[in-house]
Amino acid sequence: MANADCIIIQGSNMAEAHPVGFQWVMEAKARGARIIHVDPRFTRTSANAHKHIPTRAGTDVVLLGALINHVLSNDLYFEDYIKAFTNASSIVSSDFQDTEDLEGLFSGFDPETGSYDTDSWQYSASQEGERVGDASTFTGRDGSHYTSGHAGASEAFGAGGPPLEHGLPERDETLQDPHTVFQILKRHYSRYTPEMVTETCGISRADFDYLADSLVSNSGRERTTCFAYAVGWTQHVGGAQFIRTAAILQLLMGNVGRPGSGIMALRGHATIQGSTDIPTLFNLLPGYLPMVSVGEHDDFAAYTDSIGRSEQKGYWANSRAYAVNLLKAWWGDAATAENDFAFDYLPRLNGPAGTYQTLMRMLDDGVDGYFLLGQNPAVGSANGRMQRLGMSHLKWMVVRDFSMIESATWWKEGPEIDSGELRTEDIGTEIFFLPAANHTEKAGSFTQTQRLVQWREKAVEPPGDAQSELEFLFDLGNRIREKLKDSTDPRDRPLLDLTWDYPVDESGEVDPEAVIAEINGRFESGPDAGKPLTSYTQMTDDGSTSGGCWIYTGVYADGINQAARKKPRTEQDEFAHEWAWAWPANRRILYNRASADADGKPWSERKKLMWWDDEQKCWSGPDVPDFPADKDPHDPGDTDAGGPAALAGNDAFIMQADGRGWLYAPTGLVDGPLPTHYEPVESAIPNPLYPQQSNPTRVSFQDRHNLNAPGTSGTHQDVYPYVFSTYRVTEHHTAGGMSRWLPYLSELQPELFCEISPELAEEVGIEPYGWATVISPRAAIEAIALVTERMTPLTVAGQTVHQIGLPYHWAQGTHAVVDGDSVNDLIGMNLDANTQIQNSKVTACTIRPGRRPRGKARQELVEQLQREAGLTLSTGDTRVTAPDFPEGTHPEDIDLSTGETIEESFDLPAHHRQGPQSPGLSEDGKHEQGGEED
Amino acid sequence: MGLLSGPEADPAADAGWGHDHDRKGFFTDTSICIGCKACEVACKEWNHNPQDGNLQIMGSSYDNTGSLGANTWRHVAFVEQGKDRIEEARETGRKLVSLGMPSIGPRSGASTPGGRPGEDLSRADTAPPDTPEFRWLMSSDVCKHCTHAGCLDVCPTGALFRTEFGTVVVQEDICNGCGTCVGGCPFGVIERRDDGTVAPKGQRGRVQQDVPNKGTANKCTLCYDRLVEGEEPACAKTCPTTSIKFGDHDDMVESAHERIAQLHEQGMTEARLYGANPEDGVGGTGSVFLLLDEPEVYGLPPDPQVPTKDLPHMYRTAAVAMGGMLAATALAFLGGRR
């Protein structure tokens, strides 16, 4: 980032949530870069930017789409770059229909399932490829057919999405064919104009021009712009598409793979990047391999083909080697070629199993036990009330933490105890609290935003019985294996066959270097048997090598912990390749082939990074090339060979099956190949672009504790007239477990506050630093009001939009230094279908002066407003509003027009899953469409 | 014998130290402060200072520790300003520039902190920025370690002393808690630590902290215990944006002048230095600051004066008075003889 000429921070409060990384923004600023912050609030990031542009939360696609339209219609894009490296010239199937043609939906939408069949989104083929790994339909174990293209099936794909049907699409290099990606893009964004931005985002023409001019004048051969985002983009329904919009824009401007370019995904915890690489996610295995899905991955070949076929271009063609090495690392000698390397030991998914689906199963008494490691869902997850109620259905739960967090104390002092909804003596959940070592009390690695794997040593011994995760899980595994050791049940083989032989020190702590060595991988046989691998290119698919996460191979090259290197910056160049280790292969800038032009020459002297050295016949430059090191830029690629050999010399995007950066995504996303503006679920503003109001693929859950505000439906929008976002401040850490127990941090932000504009304070009669009560359709909380000009009312579609800010660090309890209400109780569960991430950034509410009612009266107030707004289980959950698309089973089965009152609808079973979007398990373990049970 | 006020080249030498060490100090550049408060936390962690306050929102933007005191030795102020105030700041700053503030003058191709030598900044955006509608100032305050330190000069027990680094430090084992220094500091920095026990909201008493040095005067030591080990102070070490810089005092003052020249070149006339003038009422401070508005806005006195500055005048007045008394007495005797 320090090398950028312009930095646009949007969807992130970088200075507050990532202050250490923000030093590089300040460095870029000191070097002369222009810093722009687009955000609903004026934050500490805005304070350090050249310009703050206030915007309406959830409208980012309109703003970025208008920038795309601006550069396309004024020929301001980087033509040589997009012709060389992107799929602009690729021709898309003539069956494809855009949102412009279908009132906000793409072709292939199935209103019955609320999901897309993506067949028509594909490239048109120049050579008929055999359809392998067809991901559009498959057969479930129970014999029922269902589509995997439906919303919520993204768990079936790894990082690259499903493989391309056709790796070598037809192209028109003149970009004139109406079916080229370029022309489709032009048409798709043609109505995303500066006027639309003003009308939708509340951003003035002058501010838009400033932003557009800053981007354009700081892009091209000589200059680069970079974007930074965080959960201000991801935590929306459609958040994945917000990021896609920026990716399209950056590709158009030539700002990918070059110094000071790119889109920085800012990660919010010490090793949250590491926990995606070697995941704690239900849908991924290490190295972005997908979790195995029933029906789709019924044998090993089908599984690896669904990731990447060996005949396709690029590095996913070696998916079989990556998967075999993982299985060998886990099951060692028990993983053989004969048993497909123990592929059947892997558990299978039969639908999304994210935290919210798990919660719904808890409420159904479908979950017995629950482990919480480094997580405080009673405070940190959407709809905290339901989280706590869900936990009361468990038989047992284990909380490992170093603070007595609210997820461990809700049963005796949570808000539902106060209100009488739960009584301690009625709760059957047995809770075990186990003390955990903190980061200074254990050695290991952190992987940060830049993919740097950084090692840290143990500074002090953990106090008392506190254990590291490593020690705890190793011990737990040993005990379970001990109990099962005489078992002959085949289902216990995966546990008993695990390689579970880590060296421990005298205190029982596992040697973490042994773990990173296993992740790195080693030769299992041959002359080098036992030696560490140095690169994932050494991985074979015959079982002669093993490695726990292919992208991390090299971190233990030569038997040396490369992550532990700490050579000072004063002793090396600014890429600092000898400071820690970056995956993959210690490359510091991804896709850096694109830093040189099609001929391999730097785009400019000023932005030189990697170039083709014609004498040495190799890629040269200060970074490690993210490309086959000796592949000539004019190499046409050996398409018969498949894999890296098939890459042409300008196929800079080496993970994609066509080697190109995707302006248009034919596969991988479940809600459209191009980002399209939809209004947030509870938005009261009609979508100005399409009759389709909000994202038709969203995942929602119908439950009496999870009602939506009416949005544009119904007649009672005035009950919840404002919107709020939840977020973090520098002084605290997420749900507070690491900060509210510390006096030095607690004193800096001791109380929950809400940020409101002077205009809103005036409108509702709230005094500066007085109490305010915020009420959503789910809950009511109280907060101190910070009345500040940092909050700006916006004029959108002729109405004034007031946005309220609420940090989410506080919770009710007696164990922390400071406490307060938990603002995530206010948020409903509406998820992005690609990622299963909740929307926490745009939620409807009302705000009143004074403190909230106590005890039972608190929830009575919430219910009173629900009645006033006429809410039912299906309010705000109409999936399709485009008139030409008849809704299948219309979710408005509990229609307001029937006159059915809210009390009556509450007589329904306690909750209904919004069926098609959340296939789950029924009690007999069969897969089912949730909709059927409704 | 040292001076009581005015420019003083080497306060440590003046206090009887040899010349083994250069005078150390901070340069706090508030124009690049991001308000993360890491300095406050690092300071408390290193010095084992107790938590402050009553754990309630103070009503001062994001600031909830209020000011420097016995327990808070780094304090970050948050100031929210509208357009009018910004224009005023720019205007008062412009007047300072035209009055000839101490400056080494604008330098062509001024070196940027962290900038790479030889880097072409010619295309950098140096146009005077439009006055923004709104700004949010953040500034980390700290003990000034004055050239002429009021606290030290008035201390009756010798608990306060001038270190070999030219800084001013309390020796807690000597301080008797008389509090004279509290009134002697023109910045309101030093304070007597009460029993220091933590009193969270109500009587919950959740936090048990060992509070050292109860009842004695407390303030920033410029991490004397780290300096003698060759380490930099905790706050400077932790600052992610180098807003807090630590080094030889002369270098700090010089880079402060370079930075102000750079900002003035960019049209930010509101920028000004604080404490960098050896002619001021405390002989210049060891901790210099770059501010973006008048000092009062940040809670700093505009024209601090060391109390001892008045000593010569007071002695002269006292001498005159004494002379007068003697004369009157003599006259009385003389008159009596008649």
From TrEMBL, chain B:
Binding locations of [4Fe-4S] cluster 3: 143, 146, 151, 185
Record has Transmembrane helix as a keyword: yes
Chain positions recorded as [4Fe-4S] cluster 4 binding sites: 155, 175, 178, 181
Source domain of life: Bacteria
Residue segments, region Disordered: 1-21, 98-130
InterPro entries tied to this protein: 4Fe4S_Fe-S-bd, 4Fe4S_Fe_S_CS, FDH_Electron_Transfer_Unit, Formate_DH_Fe-S_su
Gene3D superfamilies: 3.30.70.20
Domain 4Fe-4S ferredoxin-type: 24-53, 134-165, 166-195
UniProt KW keywords: 4Fe-4S, Iron, Iron-sulfur, Membrane, Metal-binding, Repeat, Transmembrane, Transmembrane helix
One biological process term in Gene Ontology: cellular respiration
Cofactor: [4Fe-4S] cluster
Transmembrane segments: 314-334
PROSITE patterns: 4FE4S_FER_1, 4FE4S_FER_2
GO cellular component, one term: cell envelope
GO MF terms, alphabetically ordered: 4 iron, 4 sulfur cluster binding; metal ion binding
Record localization: Cell envelope
Protein name according to UniProt: Ferredoxin
Organism: Brachybacterium endophyticum
Source taxonomy: Bacteria, Bacillati, Actinomycetota, Actinomycetes, Micrococcales
